[in-house]
Amino acid sequence: MTLLILMIVAAMAFAFWSASRAAAERAEAVGRDACRAAGVQWLDQSVHAIGLRPYRQESGWLGFERTFRFDYSINGEDRHVGKLVLRGDRLVAFTGPVTRDPSTLH
Predict the structure, then answer these.
(1) Helices (H), the chain
(2) Which residue, 82, 85, 30, 84, is CA-closest to 53?
(3) How far is residue 84's CA from residue 96's CA, in Å, rounded to a whole number?
(4) What pLDDT, in 10s, does the model give residues 72-100?
(5) Signal peptide span per the entry (predicted)?
(6) For the range 99-104, what are the long-range contacts, defined as Cβ-Cβ under 8 Å and sequence gap of 24 or more?
(7) DSSP secondary structure string, 43-59?
(8) Widest pairwise Cα distance in the chain
């Protein structure tokens, strides 16, 4: 019985870790695309998770809303912070470099 509980807990931990990595990869792609579209330099080539909170999905199930930050530079000598919020794999909030055509962010 103990082994079964341990296996269930391990599977849940792996599923959470896998979903977190997928969200980080999605956030990285969105941040990189936003910087490219705005013509600014994306710094450190990474995003950093700064928040995690539960939310209720449209289906009624609980999901996680993850907040990430990234750094970018306009002229190569400055540093600015961008932030994006993902619910699942859907972008729901973005603060960062702006582009003339916001529809290029997906």
Answers:
(1) 2-38
(2) 85
(3) 8
(4) 998 888 899 999 999 988 999 999 887 65
(5) 1-22
(6) 99/34, 99/37, 99/38, 99/39, 101/37, 104/33, 104/37
(7) EEEEEEEEEEEEEE-TT
(8) 60
Torsion of CA 2, 3, 7, 9, to 10 degrees: 20
What is the C-alpha to C-alpha distance for residues 38 and 65, in angstroms, rounded to an integer? 25
> pLDDT, tens digit, for every residue of 38-49?
889 999 889 999
**SS3 state of residue 99:** coil
Is 62 in contact with 86 (CB distance < 8 Å)? no
Q: What amino acid occupies position 61?
A: W
Please name which of 95, 68, 99 lies closest in space to residue 82, comparing C-alpha atoms: 95
**Strand 41-56 relative to strand 90-95: parallel, antiparallel, unpaired?**
unpaired
- Kindly report whether the global pTM for this prediction surpasses the value 0.85: no
As given in the structure block, the two tokens for residue 8 are 């269930």
